[in-house]
Design a protein that fits this description.
2 copies of one chain form a homodimer. Chain A is mainly alpha-helical. Chain A contains 10 helices and no strands. In chain A, helix 5 runs antiparallel to helix 10. Chain A starts with 34 loop residues before the first helix and ends in a 5-residue tail after the last helix. At the A-B interface, helix 7, helix 8, helix 9 and helix 10 of A face helix 6, helix 7, helix 8 and helix 9 of B. Chain A binds a DNA duplex through helix 3.
Chain lengths: 233, 233
DNA sequence: TCTCGTAAATGAATGGCATTCATTTAGTGG
DNA sequence: CCACTAAATGAATGCCATTCATTTACGAGA
């Protein structure tokens, strides 16, 4: 474990090569550029500037290092995204599996999963195609969830498909959270689309603060009920 | 229903024909650079080179035009993607609404929707945040589907949320189709994740040709059953 | 104590990208 | 025939990820 948490301040790299006198500075400061350090810097950058601000140059700058230095530790920017993804996977709440009934455990897991990634939707295309081998925390999440399904009485050959179905719904719903409020405004086509326009108005009249939550709850409860019926079959 | 199958494809697309002496002089060739022409060229490019090959430069080249010329017709590359998205929306099969029972109509719509966009996953982040105003064919799809839900007895204020829930599942599942076969290979962590590894093996032993279809079917049937129960409530 | 191998950092390319802009072109309506 | 305007041009601009030859500094072995 090389990484001490922060301890970055002292270094001030970027020494000119000549001037051999004060060589204190250029040395490999323990662990700022290891995976934990890169992940932490990337997360801080994302938080402050969003995913558009997450460039290799900006990441390097936040680590007081030249952009090319990052490539001694990562093969590509995708690796940085993987690191971030795996970090986030550890934030998903799986604690209810083994402690509460299956339905409630799935419910808590799904809401938590959606909430975490709704703030990181640019990662979704990455996750969806990500071999779990490269993401230990993500794999750990799957293990806990799988065990929960098995213990709830799911036939083994249906467990993965059920989880995938839930995950697909969760990823799609994460996008939904970020959609603008007026996404369903049919504008000038309103008269040409009476059923849809009416349905949109009728939903709006309900005055929900977060319409995305209504759809998510509706779909999630349907999935829990439908998938739950597979137990013991 | 405005959902006519194809766009007004009247204009001959940007075939590489004008190679004759008129290198100079961008005379306004009638309609090659209108929305239909741009859409057709973009689709052809995507088909041949994938979304990585869809650059403004390549698109312009396939239309025998300078890249900057595109900006007389579109504000940004995003507009090109919107055009493509809306074209694809017209390919989604909504014909069963009004002709078959609600369950079967939803089933056909959902499979078709997923199949179309599983070949165009880079559009998903665009669609998910796309105001429908800018996409008439997409809006037409929503109108048909909404009418189908209304006629099936759904309370008006639940229609949009139900569609959104289904769509979220569809988008997530579209990614799933593109995932590599070995995505769940837990590699060196296999012994540390017995439940998950066992579940993966057990699914693999079933020998499904398209595992993504199993998960999609499972989730879709659960959603149809769960959402269907809202009718008349 | 010296020397050398190596891991890690440097900065200067490279090539690709979307987008902008001043300018030019060619049809069209008066 | 002229003026207006829509549309095309190509030469920037600025940003980006990534590569590479070179340099630096530490530590292991002599």
């Amino acid at each position: 474990m090389p990484a001490s948490p922060a301890a970055p301040g002292s270094t001030a790299l970027g020494e000119p090569r000549s001037d051999a006198g004060r060589r204190r500075a250029g040395r490999p400061v323990g662990g700022v550029l290891d995976k934990a350090g890169i992940t932490a810097a990337a997360l801080k950058l994302i938080e402050k500037k969003g995913y558009d601000g997450l460039t290799m140059a900006a990441l390097a700058r936040s680590l007081n290092v030249a952009p090319s230095a990052l490539y001694n530790h990562m093969e590509s920017k995708r690796d940085v995204l993987l690191l971030v993804e795996d970090h986030l996977a550890a934030l998903v709440d799986v604690s209810a599996f083994g402690a509460e009934p299956w339905e409630e455990a799935v419910r808590k897991w799904a809401w938590s999963y959606r909430d975490v990634f709704s703030r990181h939707t640019p990662l979704i295309p990455v996750i969806a195609v990500l071999p779990v081998t490269d993401a230990p925390q993500t794999l750990a999440m799957y293990e806990t969830v799988s065990a929960g399904f098995r213990d709830a009485g799911f036939p083994e050959e249906r467990i993965v498909s059920s989880i995938v179905a839930l995950e697909s719904f969760i990823f799609g719903s994460a996008y939904d959270v970020t959609a603008p409020a007026d996404i369903f405004d049919s504008g000038s086509m309103a008269e040409a689309t009476p059923s849809f326009t009416g349905a949109v108005r009728s939903l709006a009249a309900q005055g929900h603060e977060r319409p995305a939550d209504v759809a998510f709850s509706l779909g999630l409860e349907a999935l829990i009920a439908g998938l739950g019926a597979l137990r013991g079959a």
